[in-house]
């Protein structure tokens, strides 16, 4: 049982009153000094000499000493009792990590010094007790003097203990203000002499499936950061873009504990059973096309519930990971851009180079061709998933690439969260290849300065058979003409395109080079015969507008097509060319896409004059 201050005062004065009554009772008599002069008698008659002591004074000393010890014990033990200020704090002191400016160690040291002060007070009390014994043994000390001494000692001890208690309350409040919560997975902070803090504070750490709880010795629970591995997985596998079904390939974005095992073509994500991720198989090529399945390597995405189910990590990456394939239709400049590089930009540019690429269907020649673009998007070496043997661990990953329509980036809440557009991509390319021109020539601003026109030639199909005549007419109209076949070194060709104000080409992959033109330049597309308008507009016409280019389209007549030399005028290719489209890509490529064109230069002249007009705007 603990005594409060009033109870201790009452007990003291009750004892003092008892002492006073004993000093004035009928049993008291005048004190007489025992004779100690004769030592021989002292030794032989110890029992009789002892019996001569006054019982009253001996009892007073003994009872006073016991009372003082009890009062001291009750006062000091209050500091360590569960009901003391240290345990009555509203918040349990939890793990402490990195206390600001070393204040915690200072406060704990101050508390230790205060408790040492209590010990010194106890020693002082024991000294006073010994004095009381000496006084009680003396015949010259009466009961009034004894009560006065007890009262003085008690008053001084009570005052000092109260001061220490007040200081302890303040220090405990300071410690509580410094207390912070940390995860149990981190190293336990240490305080005095290397003792773990939770041992000093008598705390117990409990774990559950969903949260950690720190329990203090008064039973309060404090929720701290969950140790359950939280993960997210979002897959877009069934999106539909009307008219562009291939423009919505499957892609999965995930966060959490992720492993990438190239040997087994397996990606795992740590999850809980109730999340129900299951298992998926993804072909990470940014084009949804059944013809691609044999070409693109399949990656298995699987959720695991324990660390033992996942492969052991050998390499850990801090940067997010992007897994993609460079197979499919790559090798064609249009598909290189539309199916890989623009989707890769859309997926990874947001990380400002802090992203790790993992490439399956690895093609060293393709990688080297586009090394400047890949190196600008990621500052890390590419991991070849076809040869690498390590198990890679990441916290954020994309399996597949976001994409939009061909050579187009539209706003989309999930596939384009950063709201990029094709102007961002073309600006990025100018930075990659050091393209200096950001605008075409404006006619009339510079005397005798002729606009430069690039005519992209072809060696195979869709050639301009009267190219020489076209060059002659173009020069007559005032163009500085350059004829070049697309391909070869990307940087050199990009610089050539960027130096021009007008680019002319028959429908085909060469028109993809418009991405290197300066904004407001002019693009002229020659559209072959055979209902090619939709393809021409959506593959190159609309993208040109999205890139802030000025677009002109010239549709070839039946007489300008080489098909007139292969088929009679009443053939289906002339009567119903769209039926060729319905027969599939093989029929389309073997018939309509295989033609050459011979331009009616008198008719085509009007298109060239329109280009000059656009350069004056």
TrEMBL record:
Keywords associated with the record: Glycoprotein, Glycosyltransferase, Membrane, Transferase, Transmembrane, Transmembrane helix
Coiled coil location: none
Membrane topology reported for the UniProt record: Single-pass type II membrane protein
Record localization: Golgi apparatus membrane
Domain Glycosyltransferase 61 catalytic, chain residue ranges per copy: 333-524
GO CC aspect terms: Golgi membrane
Pathway: Glycan metabolism
Listed GO MF terms: pentosyltransferase activity
Residues annotated as transmembrane: 58-76
Lineage top rank: taxon: Eukaryota
Classification via InterPro entries: Glyco_transf_61_cat, Glycosyltransferase_61
PANTHER family linked to this entry: GLYCOSYLTRANSFERASE (PTHR20961), OS01G0118600 PROTEIN (PTHR20961:SF145)
Official protein name in the record: Glycosyltransferase 61 catalytic domain-containing protein
Species annotation: Rhynchospora breviuscula
The organism's taxonomic lineage, starting at the top: Eukaryota, Viridiplantae, Streptophyta, Embryophyta, Tracheophyta
